[in-house]
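Reading is simple: the token line describes the chain's fold. The lines below illustrate.

. . .
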Amino acid sequence: MLPDRTMFPVRPTRKKGESLPGYVYRLHNANGHRVPSELHSAFIAIYGKADYERKQQATETIKHVVGNFTDADWPLWPWRYLWPRQPYSHVRICPYCLQESGHHRILWELPLVEACPIHECLLIRDCTCPRYINWRFMKPEWKCHCGQPLQDLHAQVAGKGLISTARLVADAIKWAL
């Protein structure tokens, strides 16, 4: 059985613009635990093509761990079935933002966003090991399964069009940064 939020001695608060999977990762990491497979399965159902009933069950599983949340907590969550996102297993990051803020941004989940509007670099999908970054195999303290700290990765400079698109999306959803 999954522990609920009250069973964790350390309960970090959600950071502005933080993704829900990123928060779940931080909650478990702060308490010295890896994210349980039941939560990964729940996120896969929500981000994937599971039927409505399975998505509702998955939402309840996640709420059990993080507590009840509202539209103000994760603004995109009510539209989780319709809002376009990257697949759950494909994590994208800006290593510079991760180094500065220590959390995964919801903005990075949106397919239109390929660049960081703050650091003007391409979002990273792959580690140097060279496997793609994956929630299921991520080690504590934002490390790839190979042990490489994600905040130490180097990102390439993004083109002006990708930066402009990222800024437009971030401006449209002001809570994303």
Q: What stands out?
A: The longest helix spans residues 52-66. The helical segments are 20-30, 37-47, 52-66, 95-101, 160-172. The mean pLDDT is 86. The chain has two domains: 5-79, 95-176.
